[in-house]
Amino acid sequence: MWKAAERCLWALGILAIGYCTFLVLKAERSQTQGLHELERPSLASSAPRNGEVVGRLEIPRLGLSTVVFEGADEDVLDRGAGHLTGSARPGDRGNAVLAAHRDTFFRPLRNIRVGDTVRIHAPDRDSVYVVESTTVVEPQDTYVLDATTQPALTLITCYPFRYIGPAPERFIVRAMLYQP
Q: What pLDDT shows up at residue 32?
């Protein structure tokens, strides 16, 4: 009986490692493909479809660089950051909302500071934002998604960063478009 239990536990461990490896390889492949898409000259779509490349998010001080895909479903968030469909496009007037997992692509946000620069490289333009605030909210506090009159960028991830399992709160970074 102990031998059977041991074999089951070994099998479960191997399956878990295989699944985690699959997710990491999927994310790396999606990031590489997304970067290649951004490098190719193409006509920028006015409304990208779910899963299509929107741009690349960079926060130089944190060493954060990730491809942003349209949508915020689980498949998109496994591949990179997601642009919340219906929110403004980066650089446009309004609130551009990007989300990503706290334990993968947005892990460096735990060290973000007011005044940090956030760059979005899109096929049709580049935008630079400056972080104005960070806050922690409850998941039902959707006011952070509301439209704005000025070009703004809202980054959302789960909080606390070291929490194991589904985190109870959301970490919000608000940045405003830099206009020299």
A: 78
